[in-house]
Specification:
The complex is a heterodimer of chains A (587) and B (343). Chain A is an alpha+beta fold and 587 residues long. Chain A has helices spanning 2-24, 86-95, 149-160, 172-175, 198-201, 209-219, 226-229, 274-282, 297-301, 335-343, 347-354, 385-394, 427-441, 454-457, 515-526, 530-547, and strands spanning 66-71, 100-102, 108-110, 130-134, 176-183, 186-191, 238-244, 248-253, 265-270, 288-290, 306-311, 316-321, 407-410, 413-416, 418-424, 446-452, 474-479, 550-555, 558-563, 566-567, 584-585. The N and C termini of chain B lie close together (7 Å). The chains are: A alpha+beta (587), B mainly alpha (343).
Chain lengths: 587, 343
């Protein structure tokens, strides 16, 4: 008997020993040197093996301190052409700069480019079909190799190569006819038709040809390139250090960058739970957090060490109205009913009660968060339930049976004015739904509230997506134009994009079709004259406003927390960490 | 014995095959992997159509299953979208050890699992060791002192522990020991992650960061398991042979340790044996809250993205582990109790 007992305890201690052994051999994605708090730049711990740059007598820059950042989602891929995730894309500002960035005031700051092309400096041709880019001769990859025009041509080739499953070919597939490099510092981009939004969308990132060309030649694709996961060569103030799956990403100072940073390390911790991120921010375990909600601000700022800043990035929360005759409630096809819905909803009180009205004011138009493209003269429809009732009466919707819900006889059948109001299952949106349901009751509209998990909510037509299939009358979510700060909007209101069994990937889920809108949207894409383009946006918004296919709820800027330990952080909506080289920590 | 094990393993092959077919069919009910691609709004129509074609998602389900099973290096793919397949496939299929590539990260699934498995095992085995030791100790103690004050207190705490939701317990522990202890100037624990970047990934840092997640996992399981140990101990303690043992002159503790525990341990081992394969799966909620980079999070993150190659990889791994651990448990049984013979 005693023998068997000892077997049991042997097993238990083996289990304990195994877990201790695991603790000892901790896994990491890349074998790197132990973290060093401060180090003289250059010499021993250079990030890339090949380099021996800058053998001058200039004193080597010194770096100190770590900025800790929490991300609620892990980037899919560090190659930004392989991920459209917010967190993949903002990370690049540390280590992979493009031609230029946008600062917190919306100014364009050259990074790889020597200057911003314009008609005045000959960078933009008169017909708008040719852009000539001049690269700065001073920028190098972190291993000391110069960044040249060949890298840009290579980047274009990789995006368009059939072997590469890149996430998006926009705008190259639609507008770019060719990219050429007449000399090492010059790139000429030709467009098939003038393309207005080139400044926001062209070469946001450049790939290192000397690293990736051999991979592509050998494998016929860069899908599996090590560089996508461990980009040890980059072009930015920091350079990749390590990425441990699910845990963290680390970047270290790049002494070879034209503007060497002050910090020694950027440490990004993946914290998927919102409440845990909140605790980490309050405890000071992280310096920067994002994807916060307005109701967290008070709690986060209570300790006096944290400031929450609102950074607009083009997003607004809104209602998208289904006007597709095949799928929408018959009342939705009447513009006066749609207007009545706007008038019957007290968005101002909702914003006051559930959000912070200074950060999230009610918006009227899709482009209000994209200055200067928003139409300032179009104010949100006021809260006017009396007028809403009159409009509904006039449209023939009356409460004939006295049940509190308006109805109308259509084709001999009594139809109740009950609208399907759908959104995802975020708590804030559920609260808004509940409030709206009560407000609508006062004018005799019933709301059928439905919530979907986010993945189902966005599903396409063939996968039963409720929006794509038109199983709704009003859909609420936060959305943005195609790009920011230049919106280059958007296919979502083109007649040709209406989703259906024949066009399952169509993104016009509202079923809106108006030839006038088609024409305006096409015109804005190819109109280079700034004033004329703003007028087109004005016209687009006036049309949407009068037709009431979009009802704005609130401006939805990104909320960031910044610990006071970290100085000089100036976040922008388009190039979030554009000035990371100037960040400092107080000791 | 060797014969028995071989026979069980042979039976496992059709079992796993059927499981894979069922799982693959169920995956089709998930969302569209290219619906958002992780962005906040859907991608452009042209990109969606191109990605679906390049990733092979436009193929019928049985073709996708075949590719997953035996690879596609025997066929050609249409990568340029002209309707004519021209590029030879590169996948080898799970039967040749290729679990496929994630639709989300484009990385080999096996690599992604290999990244997370050690972290999950570190967390789960530590927790499991704590759970086993503590539930045995508490269970035996309360059985030996049935209806004493200590037993009643333990019983009360067990019910409280057992009924606490994991996420609530995790956040409460975090706020008490990480946020408030720091604020009050007491020795505190870290909130999230595996180590502090300023210190580096040392054994000490890992241990500090393990405390709260292990405590979360352990408290709830100990509450349940110690009840289980207590009741099986009580059952054995009332048996005739214990009375015989005492009558022979053995002391109370001799009878308890030498005779009762041996027999009471068998059902407990069954439960642990059933637990072990699921240790690989990790703990979804605990890993999420404490930002522990384990398998549970890998699974849930890729479920949200309908990344079926990763999900299939993880699920098949767990299915295989269940089969293997069941065989091990059965063998272990006969080793612990010679009355049980395997044939």
């Amino acid at each position: 008997m005693m023998k068997r007992l000892s077997r049991l305890s042997t097993t238990l201690s083996a289990l304990a020993a195994l877990s201790l052994a695991l603790a000892a051999c901790a896994p990491a994605a890349t074998p790197t040197a132990a973290p060093q708090p401060t180090q003289p730049a250059g010499a021993t711990q250079g990030p890339a093996p090949t380099s021996a740059p800058a053998p001058t007598s200039v004193p080597a820059p010194s770096f100190s301190g770590t900025a800790k950042i929490t991300f609620t989602q892990e980037p899919d891929n560090l190659n930004p052409y392989y991920s459209s995730m917010f967190f993949s894309q903002i990370t690049t500002q540390f280590w992979l700069k493009g031609l230029w960035s946008f600062d917190d005031a919306g100014n364009v700051i050259p990074d790889l480019a020597a200057e911003i092309p314009s008609a005045a400096n000959g960078g933009v041709s008169a017909d708008g079909k040719t852009i000539t880019l001049k690269l700065s001769p001073d920028v190098t990859w972190s291993d000391g190799t110069p960044v040249t025009a060949d890298d840009l041509v290579f980047t274009y080739d990789m995006i368009m190569a059939d072997g590469n499953v890149v996430q998006s070919r926009y705008p190259y597939e639609d507008y770019v006819a060719g990219v050429e490099a007449p000399d090492a510092q010059t790139v000429v981009v030709t467009f098939s038709e003038p393309f207005a939004a080139w400044q926001t969308t062209l070469f946001k990132w450049v790939l290192p040809k000397h690293i990736l060309q051999p991979v592509f030649d050998q494998a016929g694709t860069i899908d599996q390139a090590d560089w996508n996961r461990a980009p040890t060569v980059g072009a930015g103030p920091f350079v990749f250090d390590e990425w441990e799956s699910g845990s963290h990403l680390s970047f270290r100072a790049n002494p070879n960058w034209v503007h060497p940073p002050k910090l020694e390390q950027i440490f990004i911790q993946i914290v998927p739970d919102d409440a845990a991120q909140e605790a980490a921010i309050i405890a000071g375990d992280t310096d920067i957090g994002v994807f916060l909600s307005s109701d967290q601000i008070e709690k986060l700022e209570a300790g006096g060490n944290v400031e929450v800043v609102a950074v607009p990035s083009g997003y607004s929360e809104a209602w998208f109205l289904n006007v597709n005759p095949d799928t929408a409630h018959p009342a939705m096809l009447d513009v006066n009913v749609r207007k009545a819905i706007a008038l019957a909803t007290d968005r101002f009180t909702i914003v006051n009660d559930l959000l912070v009205s200074t950060i999230n004011p009610v918006n009227a138009n899709f482009w209000d968060s994209n200055p200067p493209f928003g139409a300032a003269d179009l104010a949100p429809y006021p809260y006017d339930p009396e007028q809403a009732k009159q409009l509904l009466e006039a449209a023939g919707w009356t409460d004939s049976d006295g049940d509190g819900i308006r109805d109308k006889v259509i084709d001999g059948e009594k139809v109740d004015l009950q609208l399907r109001y759908i959104t995802n299952d975020r708590e804030l949106r559920k609260n808004v739904q509940a409030v709206v349901q009560q407000q609508w009751q006062l004018v005799g509209i019933a709301a059928d509230l439905q919530n979907y998990s986010s993945d189902v909510f966005w599903n396409g037509y063939n996968d039963g997506g409720p929006q794509a299939q038109g199983l709704y009358d009003i859909a609420e979510y936060s959305s943005t134009p195609n790009s920011f700060p230049d919106p280059d909007s958007s296919d979502n209101w083109l007649c040709s994009a209406i989703s259906s069994a024949d066009n399952p990937d169509g993104l016009n889920w509202q079923g809106y079709c108006n030839p006038q809108m088609d024409e305006l949207l096409k015109q804005q894409a190819v109109t280079l004259d700034a004033a004329a383009r703003l007028q087109l946006y004005q016209d687009i918004q006036t049309l949407m406003y009068d037709e009431v296919i979009y009802i704005g709820l609130w401006h939805d800027p990104d909320l960031w927390s910044i610990n006071s330990r970290l100085k000089n952080v100036r976040l922008s909506g388009a190039s979030q960490f554009w000035n990371a080289d100037q960040w400092e920590v107080t000791p | 014995m060797a014969n028995y094990i071989l026979r069980r393993l042979a039976q496992a092959i059709p079992q796993l095959f059927i499981i894979s077919v069922i799982l693959f069919a169920l995956m089709q009910g998930f969302g569209d992997p290219v619906a958002t691609l992780g962005a906040r709004t859907p991608p452009r129509q042209e990109d969606k159509e191109r990605l679906r074609r390049m990733l092979g998602l436009d193929q019928p389900m049985y073709v996708q299953y075949l590719v997953w099973l035996i690879g596609n290096d025997w066929m050609k793919l249409d990568m340029d979208g002209d309707g004519v397949p021209e590029t030879p496939g590169q996948r080898k299929g799970i039967l040749r050890g290729d679990f496929g590539n994630s639709l989300v990260t484009r990385r080999p699934v096996l690599e992604m699992i290999a990244d997370r498995l050690p972290n999950t095992l570190l967390l789960m085995l530590t927790a499991e060791a704590v759970i086993i030791v503590a539930s045995l100790a508490i269970g035996i103690y309360s059985a030996a002192r049935q209806y004493s004050l200590a037993d009643n207190v333990i019983t009360a705490f067990s019910f409280i522990g057992f009924s606490m939701p994991v996420f609530w317990l995790a956040l409460t522990l975090m706020y008490i020991f990480a946020v408030n202890f720091k604020r009050w100037g007491l020795p505190y624990l870290p909130t999230v992650g595996m180590f502090d970047p300023a210190v580096g990934k040392t054994a000490g840092e890992l241990a500090r960061h393990l405390v709260l997640p292990v405590a979360t996992l352990a408290i709830i399981s100990i509450a349940g398991y110690s009840r289980f140990v207590r009741s099986s101990m009580l059952e054995v303690l009332n048996q005739d042979y214990i009375r015989t043992a005492r009558a022979k002159g053995l002391t109370r503790s001799q009878a308890l340790w030498r005779h009762a525990l041996q027999n009471a341990a068998l059902p407990f081992i069954t439960i642990i044996g059933l637990d072990l394969p699921f240790l690989l799966a990790g703990a979804v909620v605990t890993e999420r809250i404490f930002a522990w980079p384990g398998m549970g999070r890998l699974f849930i993150d890729h479920t949200e993205r309908s990344d079926y190659p990763v999900l299939m990889g993880i699920l098949m791994l767990i299915a295989a582990a269940v089969v293997v651990f069941q065989i091990i448990t059965d063998v272990f049984y006969s080793f612990l109790d010679p009355r049980i013979r395997l044939a």
